[in-house]
Amino acid sequence: MSKIKVVVAGVGNCCSALVQSIHYHAENPRGLMNYDLGGFKPSDIQVVGGIDIDSRKVGRDLSEAIFAEPNVAPKFCNPPPAGVVVVKGPMLDGADGVLKDVIKVDDSPPVDVPSYLEQLDAEILLCLLPTGAQKAVEFYADSALKAGYAFVNCTPAKIASDNRWVESFEDRGLPLAGDDLMSQMGGTVFHMGVLDFLAKRGVDVTKTYQLDIGGTVEAYGVLEDFRREEKRKIKSEAIKQVLPTDSKVATGTSDYVGFMRDCRTGYFYVEGKNCLGSDVIIDIYLRTHDSANGAGILLDVIRGVKIAIDRGIGGQLTSVSSYGFKNPPIRSPLNESMEWFMSFVKGERKR
Ligand SMILES: NC(=O)c1ccc[n+]([C@@H]2O[C@H](COP(=O)([O-])OP(=O)(O)OC[C@H]3O[C@@H](n4cnc5c(N)ncnc54)[C@H](O)[C@@H]3O)[C@@H](O)[C@H]2O)c1
């Protein structure tokens, strides 16, 4: 099997966990949804390029940059030096608003991103920019088109769910997946799973909320109104698809607590009625590591995109997107999206 060469834009916490997971799971399948996927193992993924704007990351080997501040992803393992030096990308709106407080913007000139990508000769550009950086995400999507890369948008910016971008990637025969990564065991997927289970047991859910507290840069940035609204809307829409239309739903990051670092606690409340109109109440919390949660799904998404590349499939990857993202172009219930993804991997579904 050939290697899957990936370039990452945004060497933050999620990138840190991705790089570590490729090393950690080289021989260790435990804790993953899929170890062998279409003949590819996690160790077949190679991050061959990294782009950021923070002076603590730019110019450093990727294996060091992933542990540089303000990243808080823990050292789960020690990936060997990658021989990949992080380069400076254009800032655009990547450090707007409160992110100015935490990102130290490097003062060197940015590289020409399409030429950098062409020279690396990789296949997939993974966009891990902060929430709210619409212009910067669009810039990287456009650079992927210019350099002939598949594009994976892990941010909430509208790319895979925007027909104009879908058509551009289709025209170029390049795969496109997104938007807004859905963590392996994060709040949204957990909430959807609980609600799906309740629906199957006949419980009529009337009210539910999911409120998160975290200590990452992402949790800090999402406190700002325009980012909070973007996230809240996507999370609520993902949850609403498994609820009766008149149910009341609230979701969103409710606060940033620095000492929690990479940990995120999601508080879930569900109120419903079962037989005889009697009350069913769930009031629980889930605590996970944000970064590892992102990497857990990215290992599958990247391999799914590589399968599309090898089959010559360009444009919207509906199975990969509905399996791995909170705001895919076509939404489907959890079980169905997992079935779609596995059928796609086996070659029974085109996209
Ligand atoms: N579990 C998860 O990690 C998870 C789940 C769902 C969605 N996401 C999404 O993934 C994205 C990344 O998450 P994260 O926690 O790694 O974020 P992060 O804030 O830790 O990292 C973002 C990185 O992007 C860099 N950056 C900012 N502007 C840039 C630019 N113009 N060019 C290049 N780099 C730039 C920052 O310096 C930083 O290193 C976010 O949009 C988030 O919503 C992550």
TrEMBL record:
Q: A single Pfam family, by name? A: Inos-1-P_synth
Cross-referenced InterPro entries: MIPS, Myo-inos-1-P_Synthase_GAPDH, NAD(P)-bd_dom_sf
GO molecular function per UniProt: inositol-3-phosphate synthase activity
- Superkingdom of this entry's organism? Archaea
Where the record annotates domain Myo-inositol-1-phosphate synthase GAPDH-like, the positions are 186-291
Query: Which GO biological process annotations does it have?
Result: inositol biosynthetic process
Give the matching Gene3D superfamilies: Dihydrodipicolinate Reductase, domain 2, NAD(P)-binding Rossmann-like Domain
State the PANTHER family in the record. INOSITOL-3-PHOSPHATE SYNTHASE (PTHR43125:SF1)
According to UniProt, the name of this protein is Inositol-1-phosphate synthase
